[in-house]
């Protein structure tokens, strides 16, 4: 008993950089308290004291904010990080060395009694904040479930599930989705004037559709050493340093496109002023007839 308690405290001390001492973990970590209360309620459940087991789990829910059914099976060195809002169903099984963040639900989609309604997490699974794993399937060892993902089908070992509904990403997929970017050809002096690259946004407008710009941005990020080094990092809180969110990429491309259009409009106004047509902040309409004569 005490050996298992020492293992639980040691795993929290290792995984949580905010932990300053083992005494702090023992007295101030609700995830640990929920695990200890569950072990008591699980023993009561297995020995036939069903009401008392539910009452112990109910008290643990009140004090920790973590709801674990007494019938659930939890392995060794399981870490509930923060833990508030975690719900674990009756037939759920959690392997050793798993890490589960706040707001996670290990729920079921079936109402039939006596069946496997809740998921099984094998060893060393990481479940991000707010993820929902629903069904009586298995999440393989060393798998990772992204934050706010809704998983309704089995996840292979060493894979990552992200999104709603969750899509499965394996290491083989990551290796095959890293195309190389062709080397840029040197631009002429005229192209350098038409497409300046000294803008603070550092983006060159090429007239390509937004979809092509996004694909080009993704290829350049995938080929960069920084992206490859951080590719295995798991964002438990749905935030990473590589900005892989498509919505973020779209916003960045729109900002860059707007900045380039503003730069080109400024250059056109300057060129018109050099030709004798004065432009004052876009308030004075252009003399179209005069402009056509000058262009002729």
From TrEMBL:
The keyword S-adenosyl-L-methionine does not apply. Residues 169-204 are annotated as: Disordered. Pfam families: Hexapep (PF00132). Keywords: Acyltransferase, Amino-acid biosynthesis, Transferase. Residues 191-202 have a biased composition (Basic and acidic residues). Its EC number is 2.3.1.30. It comes from the Bacteria. InterPro entries: Hexapep, LbH_SAT, Ser_AcTrfase_N_sf, Ser_O-AcTrfase, Serine_acetyltransferase, Trimer_LpxA-like_sf. It catalyses: L-serine + acetyl-CoA = O-acetyl-L-serine + CoA. The keyword Transferase applies. Belongs to the transferase hexapeptide repeat family. PANTHER family: SERINE ACETYLTRANSFERASE. This is serine O-acetyltransferase. It comes from Paenalcaligenes hermetiae.
């Amino acid at each position: 008993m005490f050996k298992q308690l020492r293992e639980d405290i040691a795993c929290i001390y290792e995984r949580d950089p905010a932990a300053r001492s083992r005494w702090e973990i023992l007295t101030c970590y609700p995830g640990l308290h929920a695990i200890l209360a569950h072990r008591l309620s699980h023993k009561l459940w297995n020995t036939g004291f069903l009401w008392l087991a539910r009452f112990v789990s109910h008290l643990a829910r009140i004090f920790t904010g973590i709801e674990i059914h007494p019938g659930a099976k939890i392995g060794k060195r399981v870490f509930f990080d923060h833990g508030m809002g975690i719900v674990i169903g009756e037939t759920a099984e959690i392997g050793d060395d798993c890490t589960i963040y706040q707001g996670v639900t290990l729920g079921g989609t079936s109402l039939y009694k006596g069946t496997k309604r809740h998921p099984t997490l094998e060893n060393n699974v990481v479940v991000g904040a707010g993820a929902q794993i629903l069904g009586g399937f298995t999440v393989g060892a060393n798998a990772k479930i992204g934050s706010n993902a809704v998983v309704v089908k089995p996840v292979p070992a060493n894979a990552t599930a992200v999104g709603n509904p969750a899509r499965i990403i394996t290491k083989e997929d990551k290796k095959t989705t890293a195309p190389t970017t062709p080397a840029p050809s040197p631009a002429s002096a005229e192209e350098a004037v038409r497409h300046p690259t000294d803008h603070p946004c550092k983006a060159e407008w090429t007239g390509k559709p937004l979809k092509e710009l996004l694909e080009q941005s993704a290829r350049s990020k995938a080929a960069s050493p920084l992206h490859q080094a951080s590719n295995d990092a798991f964002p438990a809180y749905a935030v990473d340093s590589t900005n892989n969110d498509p919505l973020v990429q779209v916003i960045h491309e729109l900002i860059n496109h707007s900045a380039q259009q503003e730069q080109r409009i400024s250059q056109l106004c300057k060129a018109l002023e050099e030709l004798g047509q004065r432009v004052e902040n876009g308030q004075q309409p252009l003399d179209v007839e005069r402009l056509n004569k000058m262009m002729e």
